[in-house]
Write a structure and sequence with these properties.
InterPro entries: GerMN, Gmad2_Ig-like_dom. This is GerMN domain-containing protein. This protein has 299 residues and is of the alpha+beta class. The chain has four helices and 13 strands. The strands form four sheets. A five-stranded mixed β-sheet has the order 7-13-12-9-10. It has a three-stranded mixed β-sheet with strand order 3-4-5, covered by helices on one side. Strands 6-8-11 form a three-stranded antiparallel β-sheet, with no helix packed on it.
């Protein structure tokens, strides 16, 4: 290139340099707070910016493409899914289950014991459910499938055993806990308290739930000829549906059952799900477990 061509470019280049200098750092605009955690789509190699590290100025977009609007800081993140835990309360001197759905946490054993100590809801309490576990009981260690903790040893032996059973049956729902060590004694498991279960256990639905037809009634039972019967009562106590099913194990052993029932109602109302055994002696309903619910219209 000759000298004339070089000189001809001098003025535009100088003007561009001055313009770029005037548009350089610092840039205006609020970039928002520095992220404290990687987005959920991050790969295992992605790591959040250490606290206190100055934010790195992003590379400007190409000159032929105008910059787009800044994305909000929450884009790419979502709330973790909730967790549903099973709680074992006491009813008429026996263990009965219910459930809670709460925000997800890594400390599931602490959450379960906190909810267990908090006691039943109004709907659950109406069925006679109660808790014997005081607040403040926590797992101190989980290793090799054994959860270790101390449980207050107040009350008579029957009360203490029920309290221990609540803890054992609640904690062993988690895959990381197979047995529980209480107060330094040998580890125990669910089978050590199986005699504290009623003949019929209802795991679904839970007291106070709003249910719709068809409804799956499920749980475990040890009943005559493994036959479990179900009936649905409306707000006036009228029978609006019946059904029966067979547990996976009969008399003398406990098995799971699942019964599907439907009903016809024209309005939403309070109702009751009764799960029972038919007496082999006189055909009466025995070992009845009544679960108060809200019946959605069905038909």
């Amino acid at each position: 290139m000759n000298g004339r061509g070089t000189a001809g470019l001098g003025v535009p280049v100088l003007v561009a340099a001055l313009l770029l200098g005037g548009c350089g750092t610092p840039r205006s605009g609020d970039l928002g707070p520095a992220p404290t955690a990687p987005p959920t789509s991050a790969t295992p190699t992605d790591r959040p910016e250490p606290t206190g590290t100055p934010a790195v100025e992003p590379t400007p977009p190409p000159a032929d493409r105008p910059p787009g609007p800044s994305a909000p800081a929450s884009v790419g993140t979502r709330r973790p899914d909730p967790v549903t835990i099973e709680l074992w309360y006491v009813r008429a001197g026996l263990l009965v289950p219910t459930r809670r759905t709460r925000p997800a946490t890594v400390a599931t054993s602490r959450l379960a014991l906190t909810e267990l100590a908090a006691g039943p809801t109004a709907a659950e309490a109406a069925t006679g459910m109660t808790t014997l576990l005081p607040a403040g009981v926590e797992v101190t260690r989980i290793a090799d499938g054994v959860a270790t903790l101390r449980v207050p040893s107040v009350g008579d032996p029957a009360t203490r055993r029920l309290r221990e059973a609540q803890v054992v049956w609640t904690l062993t729902q988690f895959p990381s806990v197979r047995r529980v060590r209480l107060d330094g004694a040998a580890p125990v498991e669910r089978a050590d308290y199986a005699d504290l279960l009623p003949p019929i256990v209802v795991t679904a639905p839970i007291p106070g739930a709003r249910v719709s037809a068809p409804l799956v009634v499920a749980g475990t039972a040890t009943v005559f000829e493994a036959t479990v019967s179900v009936r649905v009562l409306d707000a006036a106590g009228r029978e609006v549906a019946t059904g029966f099913g067979t547990a996976s194990c009969g008399s003398g052993c406990r098995g799971g059952y699942r019964v599907v029932v439907g009903w016809r109602t024209v309005r939403e109302q309070k109702g009751t799900i009764e799960v029972y055994e038919v007496s082999a002696r006189d055909g009466a309903r025995i070992n009845t477990m009544a679960v108060p619910v809200v019946l959605a219209p069905g038909g």
